[in-house]
Write a structure and sequence with these properties.
The complex is a heterodimer of chains A (109) and B (858). Chain A is built from no helices and 11 strands. The radius of gyration of chain A is 13 Å and the shape is globular. In chain A, the strands form 3 sheets. In chain A, strands 1-11-10-4-3-2 form a 6-stranded antiparallel sheet, with no helix packed on it. The N and C termini of chain A lie close together (9 Å). Chain A is mainly beta. Chain A has a single domain, classed as Rieske Iron-sulfur Protein, CATH 2.102.10. Chain B is α/β, with parallel strands linked by helices and 858 residues long. Chain B contains 25 helices and 38 strands. A 5-stranded parallel sheet of chain B has the order 3-2-1-7-19, with helices on one face. The interface between A and B is large, with 41 and 38 residues. Bound molecules: siroheme, flavin-adenine dinucleotide, iron/sulfur cluster and FE2/S2 (inorganic) cluster. FE2/S2 (inorganic) cluster (FES) binds next to loops of chain B.
């Protein structure tokens, strides 16, 4: 059973940017992809720079994949599954995320 | 059949090249290769030796490693000199007493520096320049010397002088001949080279014959010259030529040249058919070749000869036919090139000379009697045409049109004269270090190479001296284009345009947002390359608040939170300090903020103060206080105007002729907030002493008795470049006008993340063209450029002030959107009275085990 935590109203996230949420003690980077209701959630921890910064990276696409580029050294992480495009061994967790009545919710269990 | 045994005496550049070629050939398994070196290490790159002084280590210079030799099955012995050859029994003897038999013996013993027989030459600080050990001795001697003399003003001597100068010595060059580089240059070229080198602070003494070296009065030694004059110095470096290392051959009966050198035939065989000599020890047709490329050619010929005569029993397909000695190099930062018959010795030859005393450029062409063929050239100060000229000569091509056009600077609209790479024959040698022809590169492209990196991996071209890179790229691109492959200059996968093209599109169409541009000219969702690039272009032209909703997603790491992100995710805070001038009250305000938020505080290299370690939620509070004290954002995070460095100038300084601080403050206020392809820095000095280092800035301004001198496109940083003098004795108004135009033209036409220095270097037509645009309004756009700048100046806002006044924007300035906590991964320690991020080791000590993902500390 997923345990959903309310993060913030969707309207609080500027399209194509991310925010960091605290969910069950974990730092989760939540991204709003495009103007609409597409949202993604992955870990906020950059395994290259060893810092909690991924929510502050630039959102975009590489080929068909939605990605964020780390603000520190620019490695790319697939927003849908946390895979690192430069080095799959450094992939990070991805979390379930949904919008309920205009509010973004994340399940980090 | 047992393996054939090959012994190589000497493991220098050429010996190694021979071994590598043989050991990687198709017949490699038929050979057993042994090599002996007198030096304590395997082959290294002697050509790049002087890099040792700029920080390269012996490992960086290494051409191979013991693992590589082991892998190839090459047996090597270091520190063991070969002292005997028994040609009858086909054996050699080494200093340590080893005797080894061979089927073929290859002498690659190189050469040694010639030291003229001057009384006193054998003292401690009298050195030479050939091996890594020599360099170590030079470094050690330089450390205890103030003055250094290089004896010999040839190519190597000048390189050595550069090394001494870099080591901080007061450097002199003493030359016996009446001019520098007498072998490669003519009188005009030598003269200009001398002037340029003297301008750099190296003293040149020509026509000096050193009689003796005795104890000095002021310095360690005194050199007495034959003409009665003398020079005092703490150290002496002899670079008076090289002599072939031929003692072995001499002792054991091989034919020698009258003035040394082991005589070889076209197959590199000595007078003993099973003994070869290659590289600098070999004498072919009465000539010694003191460069690597001919040595590598000899190595190739020898490998071919050995394989054919021992294994395949075929006719010899390769033979050595002499080599071209043309060279292009940078000596003490001065570009110099010499091609073919540089002295014009060919009967009936004519010359064309171009001499520009102002720009300090000298070029001379030597052309055949009928004016059709190029025989040689000397280029000093500007060597861009080297590749073209060399190809014309080597391929014996007809000179296209008027020979003078080959050396005259481009005037007006004409493109600089030259010939396209398409005109070259397939046999044209493009990379002489690795003997790679145009045809080889074309073949590599057809085989799938499409970057210079690919070509390098496939053919080795560009991996020697690197002098051929530009030409290799041109040949590759021409070949790609001829195959119908479009050469890709796209910004990224989302935009098939260059930054310059995008800037034009945005300016002409008047776009104001990224989605519009992506829809009309791009594809996909954008990325961290195109988004900040377009964000910067939009900011340059529209100058809107960078955190506006539709612009915010475009901002890079630093702009998006208006601070520079540090390694731990915290930020730095840099208030603007225009011109470096600051009131005590503002200093106190900065100090108070730093103290309250416990920020690490440091004076920057840009005459202002950086406060480090601020967390997201602290940034607005910090800026609120700074702004209340009258400070503004310093844009330390932006690709925009950074600082205008100033010296104190005429207000206080006894030498100052104009108010440099006043001008710096005015300029900083005018251009602050201007977003550009890269950051922009200014400097303003109050007189020619140049205490503000303006000539290392993108825009440099120096006061003179009659106005301001404007310098443009200087750079510190990774690849320093002196700014070029752009205009002299300007009044305040004209100065500002010119700067407006230069900067806006840069904003329009530079590539992404291209500083003004690289921009100018890539601008077709260079400095003269820029002057033409800005001063003579060649493109009739000056009014537009000025208007664009006026708009930027008129729409300036302190981004932090706007942010603090916009509550919805402040929501983003907290680590969590849904919690008040701060990042629990931060860890600090105190050092010299301030806070700094803990190192990994310190973190482990500080670790608290109450949280398991990721390792966190409090
Ligand atoms: C703070 C400072 C060092 C210091 O403690 O003194 C500094 C710090 C940084 N410099 Fe610098 N540079 C600082 C003066 C300089 C100078 C000296 C100067 O301006 O007179 C230079 C050489 C001059 C020049 O730029 O031509 C300099 C050449 C660079 C370069 C190389 C640029 C180049 O063209 O080669 C980079 C890298 C880049 O921009 O791509 C760089 C990049 C950086 C960055 C932004 C690296 C980064 O992305 O984190 C550093 C972060 C600053 C921060 O967090 O606030 N910094 N940097 C100096 C801030 C000056 C200021 O008041 O704004
Ligand atoms: C500072 C400097 C800059 C240069 N710049 C350039 C340049 O820009 N372009 C260019 O083309 N050339 C340049 N050269 C010249 C280039 O380095 C030489 O042409 C090249 O190294 C010649 O190679 P080699 O193998 O013949 O001789 P070396 O590289 O000198 O190798 C000979 C080796 O044999 C060893 N040896 C000698 N006798 C014996 C023996 N009896 N037993 C065992 N070992 C022995 C020596 O110790 C040495 O290691 C430069 C040279 C120097 C010193
Ligand atoms: S540059 Fe000139 S005016 Fe400025 S401090 Fe130096 S000497 Fe004085
Ligand atoms: S010419 Fe030296 S690397 Fe190509």
């Amino acid at each position: 059973m997923s345990n959903w935590t309310k993060v913030c109203p969707l309207a609080d996230i500027t399209p194509d940017t991310g925010v960091c949420a605290l969910v069950d003690g974990k730092q989760v980077a939540v991204f709003r992809y495009g103007e609409g209701e597409t949202v993604y959630a992955i870990s906020n921890y950059d395994p290259f720079g060893n810092a909690n910064v991924l929510s502050r990276g630039i959102v975009g696409s590489l080929g068909e994949r939605p990605v964020v580029a780390s603000p520190l050294y620019k490695q790319h992480f697939d927003l849908s599954n946390g895979e690192c495009l430069e080095d799959a061994e450094k992939s990070i967790a991805a979390y379930q995320v949904r919008i309920e009545a205009g509010v973004v919710e994340v399940a980090a269990a | 059949m047992s393996k054939k045994r090959i012994i190589v005496v000497g493991n220098g550049m050429v010996g190694h090249n021979f071994i590598n070629t043989l050991a990687t050939s198709d017949n490699a398994d038929q050979f057993e290769i042994l090599t002996f070196s007198e030096e304590p290490r395997l082959a290294y790159d002697r050509v790049q030796l002087s890099k040792y002084f700029s920080g390269a280590s012996a490992d960086d210079l290494a051409l191979t490693t013991s693992d590589e030799y082991d892998g190839l099955g090459v047996v090597y012995t270091l520190n063991d000199k070969v002292v005997g050859i028994d040609a009858d029994n086909k054996t050699i003897t080494t200093a340590s007493g080893r005797v080894e038999g061979y089927d073929k013996l290859v002498l690659a013993t190189g050469s040694y520096p010639f030291v003229p027989p001057i009384p006193g030459k054998d003292q401690d600080h009298c050195l030479v320049y050939r091996t890594i050990e020599d360099l170590e001795a030079i470094s050690a001697s330089a450390a205890v010397s103030k003055t250094g003399v290089v004896v010999g003003g040839g190519l190597l001597g000048l390189e050595a002088a550069n090394a001494l100068k870099q080591a901080g010595l007061d450097t002199h060059v003493v030359e016996f001949a009446p001019r520098l580089m007498a072998v490669q240059l003519d009188e005009g070229g030598g003269k200009l080279l001398r002037r340029k080198i003297e301008d750099l602070g190296v003293s040149v003494h020509t026509e000096k014959n050193t009689k003796e070296i005795v104890a000095g009065e002021e310095c360690r030694y005194r050199m007495n010259f034959a003409d009665g004059s003398y020079l005092e110095t703490d150290m002496i470096l002899f670079s008076a030529g090289i002599r072939p290392q031929d003692e072995l051959a001499r002792q054991f009966g091989l034919d020698m040249g009258e003035r040394g050198g082991i005589v070889i035939n076209d197959y590199c065989q000595t007078s003993e058919k099973d003994i070869y000599a290659i590289g600098e020890c070999a004498l072919w047709d009465g000539k010694i070749y003191g460069l690597v490329a001919p040595g590598y050619q000899m190595a190739k010929v020898t490998v071919n000869h050995i394989i054919n005569s021992l294994i395949t029993h075929q006719d010899h397909t390769l033979s050595f036919q002499g080599a071209d000695m043309s060279t292009k190099l940078k000596l003490l930062g001065v570009d110099v090139a010499s091609i073919g018959d540089a002295q014009g010795r060919t009967a009936g030859a004519h010359s064309y000379i171009f001499n520009d005393d102002v720009a300090e450029v000298y070029k001379r062409l030597i052309v055949s009697a009928d004016g059709k063929k190029l025989l040689g050239a000397v280029l000093v100060g500007e060597v861009d045409s080297y590749g073209t000229l060399l190809q014309l000569m080597l391929n014996d091509m007809d000179i296209p049109g008027n020979p003078a056009a080959l050396i005259l600077p481009a005037l007006g609209d004409e493109a600089p004269a030259g010939l396209g790479v398409t005109a070259l024959p397939d046999t044209a040698q493009i990379c002489s270090c690795y003997d790679v022809s145009k045809g080889d590169i074309a073949g590599a492209v057809q085989g799938g190479c499409c970057t210079v990196g690919d070509i390098k991996a496939a053919t080795k071209a560009t991996s020697g001296c690197g002098g051929c890179s530009a030409l290799v790229k041109q040949v590759m691109e021409a070949e790609l284009e001829s195959m119908g492959v479009e050469v890709d200059h796209s910004l990224c996968e989302h935009f098939a345009y260059t930054r310059v093209e995008l800037a034009d599109i945005i300016r002409v169409k008047g776009y104001t947002s990224f989605p519009e541009i992506l829809k009309s000219h791009g594809k996909g969702h954008g990325c961290e390359i195109c988004k900040p690039a377009i964000g910067s272009i939009l900011a340059s032209f529209n100058n809107e608040y960078v955190l506006k909703d539709d612009l915010m997603p475009l901002q890079d790491t630093n702009d998006i939170f208006l601070g520079n992100m540090q390694k731990d995710g915290t930020y730095s805070v840099v208030p603007r300090v225009p011109g470096g001038e600051i009131t005590p009250d503002k200093l106190i305000a900065i100090g108070e903020v730093a103290k309250e938020f416990d920020l690490y505080t440091k004076i920057t290299g840009g005459q202002r103060i950086d406060l480090f370690g601020a967390q997201l939620h602290e940034l607005p509070k910090i800026w609120e206080k700074l702004i209340a004290a009258g400070l503004e954002t310093g844009h330390a995070y932006g690709k925009s105007l950074r600082t205008v460095k100033s010296c104190v100038g005429s207000t206080w300084c006894r030498y100052g002729v104009l108010d440099s601080v006043g001008m710096a403050v005015a300029l900083e206020h005018r251009y602050k907030g201007l977003r550009a392809p890269h950051k922009i820095k200014f400097g303003v000095s109050g007189c020619t002493r140049e205490c503000a280092e303006a000539q290392s800035k993108d825009i440099g301004v120096i006061a003179t008795e009659s106005g301001w001198n404007l310098y443009v496109c200087g750079n510190g940083g990774m690849r320093p470049r002196h700014a070029d003098l752009f205009a002299t004795d300007l009044d305040d108004e004209t100065l500002v006008k010119y700067i407006d135009r230069v900067l806006m033209f840069y904003v329009r036409t530079a590539d992404r993340l291209q500083r003004t220095s690289v921009w100018l270097e890539n601008l077709e037509g260079g400095l003269d063209y820029l002057k033409d645009v800005v001063i003579n309004d060649k493109l009739a756009i000056n009014e537009e450029l000025e208007n664009a700048m006026t708009k930027v100046v008129g729409t300036y806002q302190c981004e932090w002030k706007t942010t603090i006044e916009t509550p919805e924007k402040l929501k983003r300035f907290s680590h969590f959107i849904n919690a008040a906590e701060s990042d629990d991964n931060l860890a600090f320690v105190r050092e010299r009275g301030q806070r700094r991020p803990a190192t990994e080791a310190e973190r482990i000590e500080l670790v608290s085990l109450d949280n398991n993902e990721p390792t966190t500390t409090k």
